[in-house]
Amino acid sequence: MRAAATTALQIRLRLPRADFVLDVDVWLPGQGISVLFGASGSGKTSLLRCVAGLERAQHALLALGPEVWQDDSISLFVPTWRRPLGYVFQEASLFDHLDVRGNLQFGLQRAKSASGALVLQKAIDLLGIGDLLARRPSELSGGERQRVAIARALATQPRLLLLDEPLASLDHARRQEVLPWLERLRDQLHIPMLYVTHSLDEVARLADTLVLLERGQVRACGPVAEVLAGGAALGAATTDLLGEGLGALLRATVAERDARWQLARMDFAGGSLWLRDTGLALGQSVRLRVLARDVSIALEQPRHSSIQNLLPCVVQALEPDAHPSQQRVRLRCGASTLLARITARSSYALALAPGQSVWAQVKSVALVE
Fold first, then answer.
1. What is the mean pLDDT of residues 282-290?
2. Straight-line distance from the first to the last Cα atom of the chain, in angstroms, rounded to the nearest whole number
3. Is residue 6 very low, low, confident or very high in pLDDT (cuts 50, 70, 90)?
4. CA-based angle 238:161:112, to the nearest 5?
């Protein structure tokens, strides 16, 4: 996927590692969150450090729009301190001798901009840390420290924000505390973010663009919904990397709330799905994740079943799965795509074929946003 050159983040580089060579050539959009996903040791953090200038790659061309940070063809290398970027590490790395206000002022001093105070105040408001300003880092929870670290990075007025597994050191409760604030940054700020994680939950919730890395190689790169849905064009490596995370990511709207049964109807481009009512307002936009393993297929509309989410679909394609006993069935449901992971034996028994009308039985749906 190539973004417009005027706003794109262009990354082309090679960097030898102990047991592989990081070899990347991608264009990423100049907005939203681009997520680098892969197993530990796949090269995600090394790639982020190269973009920041903390490591110097070979045969590199790094540019954000018209601004070039490294171009080995002309021996150009802009040092980290001159690159307009913010960097958030796994650990918050705040100054213990300063309170939160002092830590944020440090970031503001780096910006050296007349509008810096306004930018910092916006970051404080977006991240909800106004009541923490007088506290020392030792008095903050892990989630609060990370929110302060993100605000400090934003205070420098970066044109690119780099986040290296910012939730990895937090427990589940603290991760759930920080995730909504990251969503707010994605939706309300107009700066691109490059985000490293090995959590598919974070991918589904935050990513606009997804880059799959394996041993330093880019296995897939594109809009998150397309990459999570796999497909023959992306190759078998994508299926292996995503594993049980393969499936559909749907953008939906809260359309109805059933007070009697405590359910909410989510409408998407292809139908409706009923989920547990979590109190979301009518009209709110959400992301829904339907894993391939949670979709089964029937040739006729089921009449007596505990599964309530039944969708008429058309078989688009039959694809091999990671194990020969299984098959992936790509289904077209209105304007959306669903995946079903079934046994090859079931596919044969149903005589499934492209163009065939079937019913998708969705056993489970996850509300990820």
1. 95
2. 25
3. low
4. 165
The number of residues making up the chain comes to 369
Q: What share of the chain is helix, strand, coil (3-state, %, to 5)?
A: 30, 35, 35
Q: What CA dihedral angle connects 136, 141, 147 and 153, to 10 degrees?
A: 50
Neighbours of 279 (CB within 10 A): 8
Q: Which residues face 222 on adjacent strands?
A: 210
On the 0-12 / 13-18 / 19+ scale of CB atoms within 10 A, 358 is: buried
Residue 130 phi/psi, 5° resolution?
-60, -35
Tokens found for residue 331? 């289904």
Return d(Cα 340, Cα 331) in angstroms, integer: 8
* pTM (two decimals): 0.89
For the chain, list the domains and their CATH numbers.
Answer: 9-245 (3.40.50.300), 247-367 (2.40.50.100)
Q: What is the mean pLDDT of residues 266-283?
A: 94
Q: In whole angstroms, what is the distance from residue 357 CA to residue 7 CA? A: 42
Greater pLDDT, 57 or 238: 57
Structure tokens at 196: 């490293």
The average pLDDT across 189-202 equals: 91
Alpha helices in 81-194, H assignment, sequence order: 100-111, 116-127, 142-155, 172-188
Contacts of 49 (CB under 8 A, 6+ apart): 55
**What DSSP character marks residue 8?**
-
Q: Are 196 and 163 in contact (CB under 8 A)?
A: yes
- Predicted confidence at residue 357, as pLDDT, reads 97
Mean pLDDT of the chain: 90
Cβ–Cβ contacts within 10 Å for residue 59, how many? 12
d(CA 34, CA 221): 10
Half-sphere CA count of 157, side-chain side, radius 13 A? 14
Whole-number pLDDT of residue 245: 83
